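Reading a protein record of the kind used here takes only a little practice. These numbers are not coordinates but entries in a learned vocabulary of local backbone shapes. Here is one such record, which you should read through line by line.
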Amino acid sequence: MKFSHFYILPLLFASIFSLSWATSSHEDFLHCLSLRSNDSSSISKVIYTPNNSSYSSVLESTIRNLRFSTTNTPKPLVIVTPLSTSHIQATIYCSRNHGLQIRTRSGGHDFEGLSYVSEVPFVVIDLVNFRSVDVDVENRVAWVQSGAVLGELYYRIAEKSRTLAFPAGTCHTVGTGGYFTGGGYGLLFRKYGLAADNIIDAQLIDVNGRILDRKSMGEDLFWAIRGGGGGSFGIVLAWKLNLVSIPTTVTVFTVSRTLEQNAIKLIHRWQYIAHELPDEIYSSFSLIRANSSQDGKKTVLASFNSLFLGGIDELVPLMQKRFPELGLVKEDCIEMSWIESILYFGQIQNESLEILLDRNFRSPITSPYYKAKSDYVKEPIPEIGLRGLWSRFSEEEAESAVIGFFAYGGIMDEIPETANPFPHRAGNLYKILYNVGWQEEDNINSERYISWARRVYSYMSSFVSKSPREAYINYRDLDIGTNNKGNTSYAQASIWGRKYFKNNFERLVRVKTMIDPENFFRHEQSIPPLVSSRKKIAH
């Protein structure tokens, strides 16, 4: 998608300079951009300020959680949609010189809106124009720019091969840039690991404007950007991916059961089975509130979802042997191509594959307003504990709540915790995503829904990982801790940092201290540098 730009070049910067900024530094920033760019007429086409008619549409184009699109939400002073690396270099330079923070957005799916919201004066670099995908089938690799969404990546791979794929997520509008920086799991992760486990090179612009690849950035920084979270080390422009083998036919199924149909016993049994299933099986289930067949009363529906890298005739006897309680039969299963399975799990199976190229598509799965949290589970939850979770769905705020459970095991048990910053490997039975949503008309009551998520999270504390209570960085949750707006200490950041990264947090801090010692790239949950007692760096 290309946004409309302002082409009346002689008038552009004159009109920008006439804006009524809060301080003169903002005017200086815009003037700086025009001077620093190799082609001032080029950068003028990608600058949006609140006085531009397109500003709101550009800002709102990829806000995926409307909780952060209200009149009270802080807005960027400037949005830059760069067409070249020089535009990004100029924006970094001018932001540093004029006291503005940078937020970088690829797909806009940050659960807490950190790619486009800040409490201090800031600029958004929106990578919407950085989204090329170059697939090399012969060498089984692809280069993808950070502004591309997962759907664009999948579509371009499928255009060239039915037997190659990339292990990433099922929400096709998620931007690759943010997704890869958090690790990234998906349908193939039990077979091939995370997205970050399959990245073999990258191009990054650092705080000094240098363009670095894996060789020039060094292995420490290359390690850090593959799972250490976005917005801490620089701006990753592009990623080189190792593509993986898939069969021409995969099989999917969804089997749903209510409380009255023994769902709790099935879930209890699933906990002992799912992580030990063959690597070729992705297994998950979700809980939602639904109407019961008995007198129309409300109940909880558990939907078991799986993908198998193979055909029905192989999957059904395997599941009947390993998980007979589920009662899977051939009629429950559908054979399709891997690319079609992305549509199936995104609940858009009736759409054409071209829907994957629509980066502005609004998923039917996610509510427009939501709050999410995450957990990791290392021991099966007893039935009584599951019943307690079940009862939370009877509360009014749970009408649009979804709790997802995603089986681990497979190759995830074999990859060391220190392979990249993502530490949640061996020892985890599954991961949990808690998501509570609501509609626009009820946003005035948003705190009620957020409180529901927090109460459920509190209830689950005795059943999940401890010391630290682990969390997934791509399911960002500011409840678990934030940096100070001013000087952020290592101790302060450790509160949330160890939950996301465990002992890898220390190495991330060392890398940050090396690459960005003055902490220019920062946000509420960015990695802080170490600050010596002799010289404190303002950040």
Q: What stands out?
A: The chain is about 30% helix and 20% strand.
